């Protein structure tokens, strides 16, 4: 089990509003959010656009990832240079985009972590891009979230394989900012308990 002190964002025993709609003997609670890291991502200056198949309405936008940094209570490192991209899918006539990113993190102690990220980008206003692409976007401007999945070998980051993580995104000076949180019911730390070693 995780040995670090959890960074609690919510009361782990806050009753779920769902209890008001269906009363059962087993009470449901709002899960806790535990901070994992902040990632700062540098994107390429130009994107590639793939036309919609069969003259459809969905257009693929390939947004190359140049690099970046990742820092948190249990991880510090970089995004490997040009290790991935976001293969987003936009709908003609709307600002809504489905996100589909893949890239590799490399920690300061030389462990690689493969990241898959799927989510949404949805500005709150229809005219959000009327004056052209902004250089900064805040959470007040957009709904911008991802579901993060991690893949790495056994060792100091093996706990990341077993967490359910979400990313909350914004943009500052053309750099994507992702605050990653693990969603957990545990009060002792997110992530599965490691199996005992067998000699």
Describe the structure.
With about 200 residues, the chain is an all-beta fold. The protein has a single domain (about 30-125, about 135-185), classed as Porin (Beta Barrel). It contains no helices and 10 strands. It has strands at about 30-45, 50, 60-70, 75-80, 85-90, 95-105, 110-125, 140-150, 165-170, 175-185. Strands 1, 2, 3, 4, 5, 6, 7, 8, 9 and 10 form a 10-stranded antiparallel sheet that branches. A hairpin with a 4-residue loop joins strand 3 and strand 4 (about 75-80). The two termini are about 20 Å apart.
Which secondary structure elements does this structure contain, and how are they paired or packed?
Elements: E1 32-43, E2 48-50, E3 58-71, E4 76-79, E5 84-91, E6 97-107, E7 112-123, E8 142-151, E9 165-172, E10 175-184
Antiparallel strand pairs: 1-3, 1-10, 2-3, 3-4, 3-5, 4-6, 5-6, 6-7, 7-8, 8-9, 9-10
Secondary-structure element order, N to C: EEEEEEEEEE
Low-confidence stretches: 1-6
Span between N and C termini? 20 Å
The helix-and-strand class reads: mainly beta
Strand content: over 45%
Provide the domain count: 1
CATH architecture: Beta Barrel
Largest sheet: 10 strands, antiparallel
What best-fitting shape do the alpha-carbon axes yield?
globular
Query: What is the CATH fold-level name?
Result: Porin
Cα Rg: 19 Å
Figure out the total of helices. 0
Strand tally is 10
How much helix is in the residues?
Answer: under 10%
Output mean pLDDT. 89
Text of the CATH class:
Mainly Beta
Pfam families: DUF3237
């Amino acid at each position: 089990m995780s040995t670090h002190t959890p960074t609690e964002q919510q009361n782990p025993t806050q009753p779920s509003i769902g209890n008001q709609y269906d009363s059962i003997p087993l009470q449901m609670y709002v899960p806790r959010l535990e901070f994992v890291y902040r990632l700062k991502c540098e994107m390429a200056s130009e994107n590639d656009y793939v036309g919609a198949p069969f003259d459809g309405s969905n257009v693929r936008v390939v947004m190359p990832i140049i690099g970046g940094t990742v820092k948190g209570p249990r991880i510090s490192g970089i995004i490997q240079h040009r290790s991935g991209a976001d293969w987003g899918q936009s709908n003609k006539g709307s600002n809504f985009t489905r996100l589909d990113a893949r890239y590799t993190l490399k920690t300061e102690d030389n462990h690689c972590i493969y990241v898959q990220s799927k989510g949404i980008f949805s500005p709150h206003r229809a005219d959000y891009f009327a004056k052209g692409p902004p250089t900064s976007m805040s959470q007040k401007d957009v709904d911008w979230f991802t579901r993060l999945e991690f893949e790495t070998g056994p060792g100091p980051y093996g706990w990341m394989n077993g967490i359910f993580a979400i990313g909350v995104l914004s943009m500052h000076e053309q750099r994507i900012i992702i605050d990653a949180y693990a969603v957990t019911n545990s009060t002792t730390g997110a992530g599965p308990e490691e199996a005992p070693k067998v000699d």
